[in-house]
Give the backbone structure.
Amino acid sequence: MRFVIERAKTYNVPKHIIDRAIEKAKGTGDENYSELRYEGFGPNGSMVIVDALTNNVNRTASDVRAAYSKNGGNMGVSGAVSYMFDNTAVFGVADKSADDLLEILMEADVDVRDILDEDGQAIIYAEPSDFHQVQEALKAAGIDEFSIAEIEMLPQNEVTLDGDDLVKFEKMIDALEDLEDVQKVYHNVDLSAE
């Protein structure tokens, strides 16, 4: 719960919306929500993972399956593609170099996978279990604004799509992201090559 609230604050979600979401999550006791992960394949070797939160598993499974199949994809079984992704805590920090952040984290005795300077900011990659430890070490050093502060599924290898394959893939991702119960969509397509 703390992670979700911190993530919402990172994206400047107003407090009243966060409070309303917490109340909805508490529910009236009648609704039970399930966290689900769907995995599948898109055009030409693309792989997609969909995380959903739903109170109707059958509806969500049907909607996700339809979004895949109507756009040139196939829903796979659990574990079909997740082995090709790394579950990773990711932080983006502007106005600090990778070396500065490495020094801060070493002084706090926090281990990370990697720290890179990318697109004018430093990106920290860490184990998901160390998310709060990294965040607290950075906050203790006076860093409390993050361009990214999430646990992501990062692809081990990316593929490039073009032409019809790219159009179908983008339509499939849009269809998946538009579903009400879908929380996050991960994929292995390099969209920077467009």
Summary: The chain has a mean pLDDT of 88. The first strand starts at residue 34 and ends at 41. Residues 2-83+156-193 form a domain with the Alpha-Beta Plaits fold (CATH 3.30.70.980).
